[in-house]
Q: What sequence folds into this?
C-alpha cells in the first residue's frame, strides 16, 4: 500500500510519554526551587547532576532547557532576547537560546530594555521562568563555545555569581598506545578531570556551607549506572530486524538519562523502556511500519523537527536506528562506573562527549555501529551552529563509503534554530540515496563481502 | 541472478519538472529519443509541465493513453499527473547522461536552483553524489543574477565572459551579495567582460569544491541549462584540468533518464506503479492554460526547444 502524505507510519514507544511527564515535573520543580529553599546552579556540558544532587542543589542544564524550548517551539523569544543583547545568529543556537533566557531572567517580568522586540509574554514567560543562578559550573568537553558559555552567562549576571570551570583535554587518540578507553592519554586525562571533580566538590561545600554527601553520590550513581545498563540493553535489542525502536525514540529518552535525579524512578523508567523493546522483539514488531532501510544518523538532534523527522523517515520505510548522539553519549559505558568511588568513572564519561574525540576514534565508533546495526546508509545532520559536531562528518562519510561501501547524504539544519532547515534538501537527497540502495539491491551488490564483521581499532 | 529482460513495444515518457523549466522526452522501445521539449517557466508550474508533455507527445505522434509508462523527476516530480512513479533528479540525470555519453564517470548538473556532482558506474547508476548547500551559489540562478547585473541577455553571457580577463577577485558566492559585489565592481569602472569572466571563474571554483566531495573522475559531462553557456564549460574544464563534454541537449538528460527508467521497469516485467500519491486528484487535467484552475503565474508557455530523434540508446 502506498502511504499518503499525512499518514503517520511511526510506532513510537509508548513509555516515552511517561518520560515526558517526568521531565515536565522536573522543570516545574526547578522553576520554584528557590521558593523551596534550594540554591540553584546553572551548568553546561557533561552530566554533573549527581554531584549537584549530593550537594543539595537544584540544577539547570542550559542546553537541555534550550532543547526543551526548541522542541516546544518556544525558543523564539529567548533567541530574540539574545539577538537584542548582541549575540550573533551564527552562535551555537543552544547557547544563544540559553543566554537569551539569562537576559529574560534578569529582566524578570519587565520587557528587556533595548529596542523592545521581546515582549511576547505568552512565550517569553516560559523562557524567563528559569530561577536566577546562585552559581555556575561549566563542564564542557570538545566544544570551545560550550567551554566559554557559562563564562558569558557569568558576565551577563554582572560577574556577581561564583563560577567553577572543569577543563577537559581533547582526546586526540594518536599516541601509539591510544585506543578507545585505553592508553596513557586516556588514563592521564581521566585522572586530570577526576582531580578537578574533587576540587569542584570542595567549591560546592564552600558555596552551600554544607558538607558534601558522598554516600548520596554513591547511591545516585548506583541508580544512574543501573539505568544506563538498561539503556544499553535496550540499544542492543535494536539490532534486531525490524528494529523495535528508533533513533527518535532514543532521542525522547535523552533528557531522563542526561539530567534527571539518580533514583529508583529513573531505573524504573529505563526498565520500562527496555521491557517494551524486548516485548516488541519477541512479537516481531518494528519501530516503524514496513522497515525497508536501516539508517545511521550523525548529528545532534534538530529539536524543532523531532516529530516531523521521525514521520518523514518512516514514510520512506527508513528506520533510523543508530547515531553518534545516542550510541556514543549519555553514560554509554556504565562498566566504567565504580559505584563505591564513582568520580573517576564520571570524569571518564565527561571526556567521552562525542565532540571530544579525534577523528580516528569517531571514525572507529561510527563504523563499528554501522556494522553492528547493519545499516544501509548514513544521514549527516550538518548542524549549522555546531561546528564541533559537524567538523569530522565529511571524513566519516568518506570512510563509510570507502571502507564499508555505505552511502551517505548530508542535510543542513540546527539544534534549536529552525530557520537553517530546508525540507526539500533533506527529502530529495534522502530519496536519491534510497533509490541508489534499491538499485544496488536489485543488482545484488548492496553489501560488500564481510559486512557485519566486528570493526577493529585502526592501527 | 540477473534481472530478466522482456521484449516491450510502445513509447515511454519522462518528465522533468524543474525549478525554472519543464522538460519532456518520449523514447521508443529501444530507448531512442523520438521527441523532446523544453518549456520555460517562472517557477514550478503545472501548466508548464502540461505544455512540455503535450508538445513532446504531439511531436512524437503519440497519444497519452498509448504510452507504456511515465516516470517523473525534478522538484515538481510529485505533481505530474499520469506519472506512475517518480525518481529524484540525481538518479535520472545519471541514467540519462550515461545513455547519451556512454562511459561517463562524473556528471556535473547545474540546474536553475541547485547544482550536483554525481559519480556513476558502468551502467549509469549512481555511485555517490553531492549537492550545493544553503544558497544559489553556482546554480543557474547565479548566472541570471550576473546577467541582470551587467545588463546582458543570458544567452550572450558566456560569449561575453570568454572575451574578458578573469583576474578580478570575487569573494562572495551568495547570489544576493554577489550582485552587490558586481555592482561595486561596475562602480569601480571595471570592464563588463572582465567582471563576467571573473565571476565565471569563481563559480567554477565553487563547483570544484562540490566535485571534491565525490571525487574527480573522467570523462566529465556537464548537463543542465548552464551547459549551454560556453564560458561555464571553459572555466569548469580549466578548474577540473580535463575536457568537459556537453551532450547534444544538456537540459533534457533528466527527462531522458526518467523515460529510460520507465522503459527499463517495463522490460523487467514490472511496469512503474502509481506512487505519485493523489497527483491526479490534486491536479486534475484541465482544458489548457486558460481553463479554470490554472495556477501558473510565471509560465509564459514559451517552447524553448522541441527536438526529435537523437540516435542514442538506453
A:
Amino acid at each position: 500500500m502506498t502511504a499518503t502524505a499525512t499518514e503517520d507510519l511511526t510506532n513510537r514507544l509508548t513509555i516515552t510519554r511517561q518520560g515526558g511527564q517526568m521531565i515536565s515535573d522536573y522543570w516545574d520543580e526547578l522553576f520554584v526551587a528557590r521558593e523551596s529553599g534550594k540554591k540553584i546552579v546553572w551548568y553546561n556540558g557533561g552530566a554533573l547532576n549527581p554531584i549537584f544532587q549530593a550537594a543539595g542543589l537544584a540544577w539547570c542544564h542550559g542546553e537541555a532547557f534550550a532543547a526543551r524550548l526548541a522542541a516546544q517551539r518556544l525558543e523564539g523569544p529567548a533567541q530574540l532576547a539574545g539577538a537584542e543583547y548582541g549575540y550573533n545568529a551564527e552562535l551555537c543556537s543552544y547557547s544563544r537560546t540559553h543566554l537569551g533566557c539569562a537576559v529574560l531572567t534578569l529582566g524578570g517580568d519587565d520587557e528587556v530594555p533595548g529596542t523592545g522586540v521581546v515582549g511576547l509574554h505568552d512565550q517569553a514567560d516560559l523562557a524567563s521562568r528559569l530561577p536566577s543562578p546562585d552559581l555556575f559550573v561549566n563542564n564542557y568537553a570538545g566544544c570551545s563555545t560550550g567551554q566559554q558559555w557559562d563564562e558569558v552567562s557569568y558576565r551577563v549576571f554582572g560577574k556577581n555569581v561564583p563560577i567553577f570551570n572543569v577543563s577537559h583535554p581533547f582526546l586526540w587518540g594518536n599516541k601509539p598506545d591510544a585506543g578507545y578507553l585505553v592508553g596513557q592519554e586516556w588514563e592521564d586525562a581521566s585522572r586530570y578531570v577526576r582531580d578537578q571533580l574533587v576540587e569542584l566538590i570542595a567549591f560546592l561545600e564552600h558555596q552551600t556551607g554544607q558538607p558534601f554527601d558522598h554516600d548520596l553520590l554513591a547511591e545516585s550513581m548506583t541508580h544512574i549506572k543501573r539505568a544506563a545498563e538498561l539503556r544499553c540493553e535496550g540499544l542492543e535489542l535494536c539490532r534486531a530486524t525490524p528494529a523495535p525502536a528508533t533513533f527518535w525514540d532514543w532521542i525522547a529518552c535523552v533528557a531522563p538519562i542526561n539530567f534527571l535525579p539518580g533514583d529508583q524512578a529513573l531505573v524504573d523508567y529505563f526498565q520500562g523502556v527496555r521491557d517494551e523493546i524486548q516485548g516488541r522483539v519477541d512479537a516481531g514488531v518494528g519501530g516503524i511500519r514496513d522497515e525497508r532501510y536501516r539508517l545511521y544518523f550523525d548529528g545532534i538532534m534538530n529539536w524543532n523537527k523531532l516529530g516531523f523527522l521521525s514521520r518523514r523517515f518512516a514514510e520512506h520505510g527508513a528506520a533510523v536506528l543508530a547515531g553518534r548522539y545516542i550510541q556514543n553519549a549519555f553514560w554509554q559505558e556504565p562498566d566504567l562506573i565504580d559505584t563505591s568511588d564513582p568520580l573517576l568513572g564520571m570524569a571518564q564519561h565527561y571526556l567521552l562527549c562525542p565532540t571530544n574525540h579525534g577523528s580516528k576514534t569517531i571514525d572507529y565508533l561510527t563504523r563499528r555501529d554501522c556494522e553492528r546495526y547493519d545499516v544501509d546508509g548514513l544521514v549527516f545532520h550538518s548542524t549549522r551552529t555546531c561546528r564541533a559536531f559537524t567538523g569530522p562528518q565529511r571524513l566519516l562519510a568518506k570512510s563509510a563509503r570507502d571502507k564499508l561501501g555505505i552511502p551517505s547524504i548530508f542535510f543542513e539544519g540546527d539544534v534549536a534554530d529552525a530557520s537553517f532547515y530546508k525540507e526539500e534538501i533533506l527529502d530529495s537527497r534522502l530519496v536519491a540515496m534510497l533509490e541508489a540502495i534499491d538499485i544496488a539491491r536489485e543488482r545484488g551488490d548492496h553489501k560488500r563481502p564481510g559486512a557485519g564483521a566486528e570493526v577493529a581499532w585502526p592501527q | 541472478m540477473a534481472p530478466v529482460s522482456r521484449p516491450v513495444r510502445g513509447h515511454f515518457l519522462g518528465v522533468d519538472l524543474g525549478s525554472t523549466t519543464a522538460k519532456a522526452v518520449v523514447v521508443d522501445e529501444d530507448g531512442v529519443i523520438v521527441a523532446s521539449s523544453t518549456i520555460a517557466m517562472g517557477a514550478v508550474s503545472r501548466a508548464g509541465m502540461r505544455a512540455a508533455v503535450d508538445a513532446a507527445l504531439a511531436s512524437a505522434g503519440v497519444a497519452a493513453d498509448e504510452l507504456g509508462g511515465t516516470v517523473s523527476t525534478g522538484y515538481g516530480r510529485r505533481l505530474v499527473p499520469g506519472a506512475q512513479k517518480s525518481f529524484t533528479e540525481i538518479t535520472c540525470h545519471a541514467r540519462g547522461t550515461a545513455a547519451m555519453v556512454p562511459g561517463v564517470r562524473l556528471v556535473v548538473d547545474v540546474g536553475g536552483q541547485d547544482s550536483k556532482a554525481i559519480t556513476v558506474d558502468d551502467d549509469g547508476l549512481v555511485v555517490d553524489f553531492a549537492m550545493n548547500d544553503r544558497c544559489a551559489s553556482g546554480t543557474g540562478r547565479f548566472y541570471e543574477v550576473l546577467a541582470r547585473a551587467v545588463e546582458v541577455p543570458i544567452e550572450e553571457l558566456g560569449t561575453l565572459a570568454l572575451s574578458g580577463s578573469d583576474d578580478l577577485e570575487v569573494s562572495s558566492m551568495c547570489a544576493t551579495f554577489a550582485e552587490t559585489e558586481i555592482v561595486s565592481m561596475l562602480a569601480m569602472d571595471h570592464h563588463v567582460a572582465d567582471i563576467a569572466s571573473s565571476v565565471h571563474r569563481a563559480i567554477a571554483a565553487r563547483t570544484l569544491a562540490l566535485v571534491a566531495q565525490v571525487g574527480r573522475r573522467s570523462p566529465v559531462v556537464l548537463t543542465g541549462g548552464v551547459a549551454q553557456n560556453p564560458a561555464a564549460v571553459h572555466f569548469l574544464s580549466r578548474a577540473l584540468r580535463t575536457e568537459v563534454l556537453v551532450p547534444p541537449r544538456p537540459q533534457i538528460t533528466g527527462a531522458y533518464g526518467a523515460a529510460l527508467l520507465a522503459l527499463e521497469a517495463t522490460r523487467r516485467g514490472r511496469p512503474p506503479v502509481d506512487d505519485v500519491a493523489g497527483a491526479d486528484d490534486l491536479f486534475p487535467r484541465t482544458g489548457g492554460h486558460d481553463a479554470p484552475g490554472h495556477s501558473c503565474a510565471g509560465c509564459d508557455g514559451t517552447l524553448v526547444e522541441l527536438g526529435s530523434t537523437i540516435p542514442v540508446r538506453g
User: Anything to note?
Assistant: Chain B has two domains: 11-92+252-307, 103-246. The two ends of chain B are 21 Å apart (CA to CA).
